[in-house]
Amino acid sequence: MSRRPRPLKPPSKVVPAVLIVMIALVGFATLMVRLEALREGYRISTLRVENAQLENDNRALWLTEAQLSSHERLRELAQKYSLAPPTRGQVVMMP
After folding, report:
1. Is the residue at 4 inside a domain?
2. Is 95 inside any structural domain?
3. Residue-number span of the structural domain to which 56 is assigned
């Protein structure tokens, strides 16, 4: 039976420790990137809902503006308040 030769110096424990730390850092970085992507997804979803609400509000405002500035309504208001078209000389054009 031959004996195995004994190594001259014990194997280094630094290399496995560095590898474990590197694997942990890569795993943590991957987790953080996924978390940030998830957070941005929620933010985009919220912004889409807010955008849809603002578009609905905008449509409602355009409709209200159209109703308030309709010629029929303005004619009725003019009659109600005894308004008439301006006479000559009442309108001044600015250069």
Report:
1. no
2. no
3. 14-80
pLDDT in tens, 41-58: 999 999 999 999 999 999
What pLDDT shows up at residue 19?
95
DSSP state of 8: S
Residues 67 and 73: beta-carbon distance below 8 Å? yes
Query: How far, in Å, CA of 85 to CA of 93, rounded?
Result: 16
- Tell me if 87 is assigned to some domain: no
SS3 call for 25 = helix
User: Is this prediction's pTM over 0.90?
Assistant: no
Alpha helices in the chain (DSSP H): 14-68, 71-80
Residue 27 falls inside a structural domain:
yes
Domain count, the chain: 1
For residue 30, CA distances in Å to 5, 33, 44, 60 come to 44, 5, 21, 45
40: three-class secondary structure by DSSP:
helix
Distance CA 37, CA 35 (A): 5
